[in-house]
Amino acid sequence: MWYFLIRHDSIDTAQYQNLQKRAALTEVELFNEPYNNWYVFSVERQHYATFIDHLDREGIRYDLATDRPSRDELLTTMR
Questions:
Q1: Which of 2, 9, 20 lies closest to 60, judged by CA?
Q2: With the CA atoms of 70, 11, 26 and 73 taken in that order, what torsion angle do they form, in degrees rounded to the nearest 10?
Q3: What percent of the chain has pLDDT over 70?
Q4: Does domain 2-70 fall into CATH 3.30.70?
Q5: What is the pLDDT of residue 43?
Q6: CA–CA distance from 46 to each of 30, 33, 65 (Å)?
């Protein structure tokens, strides 16, 4: 699995729904102010290239991980 991390405020509702359809699993990590919420899209290896192509064509910024980051790891990257 690949995990695509996308800030909640960087995509609109239509983009979010489209990504949900393409991903195997979608999770939302909610944080309190001043930190941002994150979407975590889990994508199977065989769909990795098409998912990245879609993100790039849409101009969506993302972080990529091969292991699902913990909540603490996400928080550490925002500090």
A1: 9
A2: 0
A3: 100
A4: yes
A5: 96
A6: 29, 36, 15
Place of tokens 């729904």: 17
Q: How far apart are alpha carbons 12 and 1 in whole angstroms?
A: 25
Please tell me the distance from the alpha carbon of residue 29 to that of residue 74, in angstroms, as a whole number.
9
Name which of 41, 10, 39, 40 is nearest 23 in CA terms: 41
**C-alpha span between 5 and 2 (Å, rounded):** 10
Residues 64 and 4 sit within 8 Å (Cβ to Cβ): yes
Q: Say whether pLDDT at 44 is over 80.
A: yes
Q: Which amino acid is at 70?
A: S
The structure's pTM equals 0.89
